[in-house]
Design brief:
4-stranded mixed β-sheet, 11 helices, elongated, about 280 residues
Length: about 280
């Protein structure tokens, strides 16, 4: 790694993964701090100007109108090493649940790339265990990380189809409340979508009204609806089984009657034969 040197601010550009993980952040306070105290930590960049660490500092000095900035240049052996460095350099920053989850997704990609390299074959490697990723990015458990992963996936899908209201609702709850609250909201929103797709407008409207009262209220209603539906399905299956049992019993009775009828005919024939032989 080379020593600190000066590079023109205009020559530098952000890493494409940085935006997808950390999004847009307010850098006004950081800019004010740099203006008052100076830039104490140099940016880490590739020789071509791609920023690996220091995106917020770069944006701050751009805002301040600086023409040059202190940097340290480094060449990386491959994309996996570059991405790993980006994540490690952001390890101690304050992060939202969404940012933690997106870091976890990137760690999965890095581990998959390393696995393919070690195995010498194409295809996604097994990757880090869920609990290990959770610990690495700051979740309390692998299950919690898995929930956040599903929520973030739904956020991305919603944005892809232009449903920005849904994406923002999930993001707000995930980052400002908790993973569990966002997971409950995800279930309710999915149920609303399913109800609308099946033209069950009454259920969709009822869940929306409940959601206005609170996520837990709507989630309880959803669970109650599902339990009632499962009870109805169980009763229906019970009725079907009872009907099938009655059919079997009826058929058994018919078979028994038929057997008795046949036996009666045999007895009559035998009686006639004995009578003929007697005479």
């Amino acid at each position: 790694m080379s020593n600190i040197q000066q590079r023109k601010v205009a020559e530098l550009y952000p890493h494409p993964k940085n935006q997808s993980i950390y999004g847009d952040e307010d850098i006004k306070e950081l800019a004010q701090s740099i203006e008052e105290q100076g830039l104490n930590v140099a940016l880490l960049i590739r020789p071509d100007g791609r920023i690996i660490s220091g995106h917020r500092r770069w944006k701050a000095v751009k805002l301040l109108g600086w023409e040059t900035v202190n940097v340290i240049q480094k060449e990386f052996t491959d994309d996996a090493e570059e991405l790993k460095t980006l994540l490690i350099r952001n390890e101690y920053r304050t992060k939202t649940n969404e940012q933690k989850c997106r870091e976890g997704l990137l760690w999965e990609d890095i581990e998959a790339a390393n696995s393919r390299k070690l195995m010498g074959v194409k295809g996604k490697g097994e990757g880090l265990a869920r609990n290990r990723i959770a610990t690495k990015v700051g979740f309390t458990s692998g299950a919690n990380y898995h929930k956040a992963r599903l929520i973030v996936t739904d956020i991305d899908k919603a944005e892809e189809v232009g449903d920005f209201a849904k994406a923002q609702s999930l993001r707000k709850v995930l980052n400002e409340k908790s993973v569990n609250a966002a997971f409950e909201m995800r279930a309710v929103l999915s149920a609303i979508d399913e109800a609308e797709e099946s033209s069950d407008i009454a259920t969709a409207d009822a869940l929306r009204k409940a959601l206005d009262q609170g996520i837990s209220v709507a989630h309880k209603m959803l669970n109650r609806n599902r339990n009632e539906s499962e009870t109805e399905d169980t009763q229906t299956q019970s009725d079907i089984n009872e009907s099938e049992t009655e059919d079997i019993q009826t058929q058994s009775g018919n078979n028994q009657a038929e057997a008795e009828h046949i036996q009666t005919e045999i007895d009559v024939k035998q009686s006639k034969t004995q009578h003929t032989q007697t005479h």
